[in-house]
Amino acid sequence: MRWRFCVVRAGARGVRSGNLGLALVMIALAALWLNPWVTPESISMRSQIARLDPEADAERFPLWEMAHDWGHAGKTGIAALEAVAGPRMTARLALLERSTSRYAFTRGVADPDAERARIAALLPVLPEGRSLMRRFF
């Protein structure tokens, strides 16, 4: 709207001042977005901690996302949870530290190598030179 007003009323000089004003507004918005209190990760972290009870909702907390996707805000949230954690949340946080993947954490796998060995034992392995294609067709 301001740009249209500048073109009609003030000409090129108004367009330059309008562009300068819009550029300054965009710089201010970018600085606000980079502010640590306004980032989406920190807002989400504060919301999760305020909304969920750390002990009663220990399984519902997005701990993996907080630790690996939410950056500094998530790590701050994990530290805040460690300070007030009861036995269930302490067990979940310990599993989070030991887990090497999201799968291991969500399934509660304490030892990923033992889980891999268990799954490999379930998979059929054909001898060399044989294939499923010849067997079924």
What would your notes on this structure say?
The protein is mostly helical and 137 residues long. It has two domains: 2-33; 40-122, no CATH class. Helix content is 71%, strand content 0%. The chain contains nine helices and no strands. The longest helix has 22 residues, at 12-33. The radius of gyration is 27 Å and the shape is elongated. The protein starts with a helix and ends with a helix.
Gyration radius, to the nearest Å? 27 Å
Low-confidence stretches: none
Number of E strands? 0
Span between N and C termini?
71 Å
How many strands, which pairing sense, and closed or not: the largest β-sheet?
Answer: none
Tell me, rounded to a whole number, the average pLDDT.
Answer: 79
What is the approximate shape?
elongated
| Portion of residues within helices | over 70%
- Return the domain count: 2
How do the helices and strands follow one another from N- to C-terminus? Answer: HHHHHHHHH
Beta fraction of the residues?
Answer: under 5%
Structural class per helix/strand content?
A: mainly alpha
Number of helices: 9
Which helices and strands, and how do they pair?
Elements: H1 2-10, H2 12-33, H3 40-51, H4 63-68, H5 71-84, H6 87-98, H7 102-107, H8 112-122, H9 132-136
Helix pairs in contact: 1-2, 3-5
